[in-house]
Structures
1.
Amino acid sequence: MALDAEERPSQPITKFESMLKTDDVYFFDAEDFEDIIHHYLNNGKIALAKKAIKIGLQQHPESIEIKLLHIEVLVFENKLEDAEKMLDELQTLDMHNEEIYIQRANIFSKKDNHIAAINLLEKALEISEDTFDIYSLLGMEYLFMDDFELAKKSFMKCVEFDDEDYSSLYNVIYCFEFLEDFDGAIHYLNDYLEKNPYAEVAWHQLGKQYFSKKMYKEALSAYDFAIISDDTFIGAYFEKGKVLEKLGLYNEAIENYETTISIEDPTSHAYLRIGKCHEKLGNTDMAKYYFYHTVHEDPLLDKGWLAITDFYYRLKNYEKAAYYINKATNIDGENPLYWKKCGKIKTALNKLDEADFAYKQAVDFGNYDLDTWLLWADVVQKNNDLESAIQILKQGREFHPDDAAILFKLSGIHSLLSETKKAQKYLAEAIILNANGLEKFQINFPEFCATDWMKNILEQYKNASK
């Protein structure tokens, strides 16, 4: 297994690199070669690792450890058949080397046979004294299989071995979150923090769990402890700012976002949040200033362009809103929320064909909200395509079968087509589901409401509501 990636070049590494620059050949112990190879693998210098392996095997042709490192490189390069042949040879020499099972497991994992990989890793556990890395590999295999419960247990083992293994700690919490067991995550983190009270990463993760449960005061406390543990922890300041926003404390939120900028280089996300806070405070010019800084810092951040879009939409400057929503859709053309916003803007500009297209895109990319169907049908209706409006509403009804709004709308459009029986049918169904929509229906379709049949329905409704 690879050593610590943070290791500094040792004397053997310096000596090895000096050898490569000359025609001299130096002798190294097999253990030195292992350290040299690990160093290059950990730093992503595969070519140098392969050179060290070649020379190492020339000097120590029987070294199983160097051969295993050679196999690790072969697996990394997807030369799986060559790796398997070498493993077969090694297994005849050493049946009880856990690394052989680990590398076979890596090969099966590469072939997406995760069950076989897990079986081999479990065999490695049986014969290994150092099981830390094996549990980490097991956790990843379970993640590949979407077995988050067993993955969580494997990563918990890693944290038990090393309570500063934050990578495994993150994975444990990820599993809790995927299982939507936020209470379990909170309990686990609190237990962890009793033993490690100054672990800023754990406090940060605890704050996020409280935030998910809308326990904002508890989240603030957790982030404060994270900052006490490490006053340069940018993530804690940023997340604390988000909590303060939820509590309506926008000036305090801005202070935390500005702290992240003072600690490190500014980020587009910090500028975006500051802009949102200023907008909530009514500081229009400051909001615009920070929104523009957002997209200047990261021109590919679609949320930045959307923030500017929303800013101008609220000011009813629809031309500018249209310009900036185009920027957002150019960056992420499959985002249904952007297309929905585009539909609203084009409607406000009375560009009905373009609005029709935008709402179609929103639906095609997965936005099935009730108001999306209704807004789309409104646009098509305004464009005098009543038949298409009916088809849109019928399609929307498949996603919202028990909502009266679509039925009221269907009734009204059929009335415009003089299809009285269909109009009456849908209206009767709508009233049964939710009669409160009648008042709006009367405003939108006054001519139909003036008919004798409709007057009778309204009279019955009034009598029933007394």
2.
Amino acid sequence: MTISDRALAIAAKVETFVRETVVPYEKDPRRDHHGAPTDELVMEMREHARAAGVLTPHILGDGDHLNQRETAVVLIKSGLSPLGPLACNTMAPDEGNMYLLGKEGSPELKERFLKPMVEGHVRSAFFMTEPAEEGGAGSDPSMMKTTCHLDGNHWVVNGRKTFITGALGARVGIVMAKSEQGACMFLVDLPDPAIRIDDVPNTIDSSMPGGHATLTIDNLRIPADQMLGEAGEGFRYAQVRLSPARLSHCMRWLGACIRAHEIATDYANRREAFGKALIDHEGVGFMLAENMIDLKQAELMIDWCASVLDTGSLGTVESSMAKVAVSEALMRIADRCVQVMGGTGVTDKTIVEQVFREVRAFRIYDGPTEVHKWSLAKKIKRDWKAGRA
């Protein structure tokens, strides 16, 4: 499946918007307690994106999505600034939540919950992960302890969730809980008095409004018609969401690392030491050359995985491979950019130090590298056994 001229044109518009309109906002002081942009700042940038025709650019006017390869070229460009995905409404968790609702939501749920998200008026949150110290679901969703049961025409949900990105300030929630039939998903309006935010810790990353909250769900009553799909199908829906969402993270942070590499390259060509430009010192020049290699390999891995998803496959194996390969490559790139820039690289004078922090967190979010490797190793063993049968 080829990348259309339409998608390339959208990507070009997004790049121009991010470089010319969004980048100047990187020094805007409107930030929350852990350094993330406030909703006021986000909505102001989105008004600019709406005017420029680049708001939610991967979802077309008729509600259809660009295919995954086309989405990649657009989301990479939106990631050229840490603020770009927020401004263009391509950020996590909203982008993944919109994808899931577009695939599995009823017409009524799409009108009520998806439409305001696509229009960029509200943020959303995905309530799946649970506190590890309480034995809840993390990388292993089968450990889920949050429960739900039917009471008349309502489902009643109780449990605890943690690392719920964007929960503080979100207006739409997708809540995952376990019933007698199996895992279920529900759409809820936020805030709700039955969902109490207990803590929003400071974290190494600071690009996502609302932080990563820990919260308690206490007898949350949800109308039965707000269940997403069918009872017991929640884990399947989670895979519909998570495989493309892992890849979308790769797309956005590749864009950020492209920009960090540009900044480090500019610094290495302008800064002189020991009688010549830094780039002419082999140790520095080789780091930038290695960046170039890793950037291209990350781009190719994203394109390959996107091609698999475009065939209609869930692509869980491929997205795990991409998540590992791309996140590790981007970590190397971000680290080299800091190293090339020396003292300046660890200051907030450029976005390089933020990109380093964000990519470090990305190696954990949506499944740590080790969990994906373990999953791949299990597949290798299964395939080996099948080959011997």
3.
Amino acid sequence: MRNKFFLFLLISCCLGASCTNTKTQENSESIQDSNVFVDQSNPSANLNDDRRFVSDIVTAFIKAYNERDNEKINSYIHPEAGIMFIHRPGAMDWFEKVSKIDFERPVPSYYPYANADHTYQIEYEVAPKYDCASEKWNKMGLFVDLTTATNLLNPIAANLNEFDDVQLDTDYRKQIQLAEKDSYRVVLTTPTPLIFHVKQFGDRWYVTILDRGYADCGA
């Protein structure tokens, strides 16, 4: 009888250990699955995904720009959102929305599109700044700023309203917000700089702003 009792006790211990190991393994697998989920929701991982697609639109847009290819470059402009041009006709910045780019009719008309050939690699950093006093950039290259929120058009609209009494209707203000919300700034520091913004609509990327006023220190 005593032998049977010890045999029963031994089997019970083995079963208990087996259950404990199984639960430990399940908990471990659950933690691993949780870690995978956290990694996928990591903002830096999302930025890495954006880099792949942003590099494509940036490279393609600059290529079409240098080749002066109207048809190709306009395929990178959203058919409904259009593209906002920023320029500086005087002391203040101005902007206007157009539906397409025409290399024979630059916006503004007095500022032809200059070649932007370069040999830079894309750098994902805060966009460079231009100092009009020294007439120099604080760094040279082709930069995509994935971290700085775009806020260009609304301040310009506010200045136009305050100093030039330019009133924008509600629909136009919505178009302004659409152009710059969640967009990324691209700066190419060629002798005549090329500065634009890219944004995702659905599963495609488009250029929503062409900034031809920044680094213009003539006014």
4.
Amino acid sequence: MITKFTIGRRHSGDTWNVINLVSDIKWVTDLNFAAGTLTFDLLFDSSFYPQDGDVVEFQWDEQKIFYGYVFKVSFKEDKKFSITAYDKTRYLKNEDSLVWPISTISDRFDTVCKMAEISHKVVNGSDYKLPAEVADNKTYFDMLKSSIDKTQKATNQMYYVLANYDVVELRKAPYNELNIIVGDQSLLTGFSFEKSIDEAANSVRIIKKNQAESQQTSSTSSVSEESSGEDPAKTSFNYTDSIAGNVQDWGKLQKVENAKDKANDAQMKQRADELLKEKNKETYTLSLTCLGDTSLIAGNSVNIQIDDLSKAGFWINNTAIMKATHTFDVDYKCDLEMKVNEPWLENNSSE
């Protein structure tokens, strides 16, 4: 049950207890660099009008669930406000231009949070030194995503950003390996599973463009090439391919990438092999609907025991939550999107 739900002005100190006025509460956490979201309806009360920027605090069964700010308010003929609030990670959508020195993901997380003026904490840091780079006109989320992706590629360890009530944290995934079982005899009320090769590639071609007139190579994309007015008689391409054995099973699914400037044949072949390894795989989607539990949030992992899924040839044991949607009602439930295309990388970490 709701044990706290207040809305308050950010600086005046005025706060309203709206426990008896709220309904249709949904809370979403998502690892895909999206702010935590709380949506709810609020019954009209002439003594109080919600405003953009108001502080929202929500607790369920004495558990601190959400601390954030109103970003959207609508009002309809049913005399209810429909409100969208975001947690503090929303301010990581602020845009900026920065020159990063050689530094770690922990350093960069600390820097952007200070610039966004949000309380934060490095729960799990990394010692891996990222190269210096320029981030021009990018969101702080984009800057962190780039740094996290590079850190994961180098160390085999995934990091993510999530709000822990009113503090934004940098964490290592999985943050908490829950002992909870989501399955036939425990919490589960429904599931769907999908596998796909729609985004896969089993043939990779790295292309270098040669222009006879200038004898230079270019990494310009094909779209800009078509509009550049280049002379077909003076343009040719060199190709470096990497092809997987499962072409006979899936058919040829080809991805093309332009070679970096001055890349030699060996470098082009290395890049083709790397990209093939990355793209030559099925993707899997497992969605679960289960009874509500406040620990089922993005970044934590749970144990899966679904007999029908195993009988259909898919064995999924402990896996991670990528996105969690909690619907707080008389029947409190969760909708979970799980990470099943590859295991968490904790056990293979080189750190």
